[in-house]
Amino acid sequence: MPNPPFDLSAPSGIIIRAAEPRDAIGLARLSNQPGYRHGTLRLPFQGEEATRQRLTAGGAKRLSLVAVEGESVVAAGGLHRFEGRRQHAAELGIGVDDAWQRRGVGRALLAALLDSAFNWLQIRRVELTVFTDNHPAIALYRRFGFVEEGRLRGYAFRDGDYADVLAMALHVEGHAAAA
Fold it and tell me: The N-acetyltransferase domain covers which part of the protein (predicted)?
């Protein structure tokens, strides 16, 4: 039985497409924004070459998408499929330009990633971690049907202290594609 369709519409002027090596400059700029970096596991001062290498790593196990306005990368997200007995599952990561947050870009990018996972890649479980103080992201994930599976204490060093994250997951039989 096919999964319900996701709303793949994007805000006006935004195109969601596969990330390409030419996006390395824009992705490095994105990764170096204070707000973007605060919500991810990225280190400060990401360079273009390291970003380009990350883009080309992973091969068929990785799906990397960008949201662009013209030639500017305004959001990035990806799925990394696990192997072996966990090949039915993937880890999701997403981040939005500081200036584009709360404008529907993250929703559109998340919908595209989940549509790809469940309707094209035969993934049955999508997992993520999100900092406990990232309330807008947590609300977005919950809107799509993600549920909290645990709290990981002292998970990552950020801004001079250890921060907790929520482990969340979405199973194919429990997703709510209406978001």
Answer: 14-173
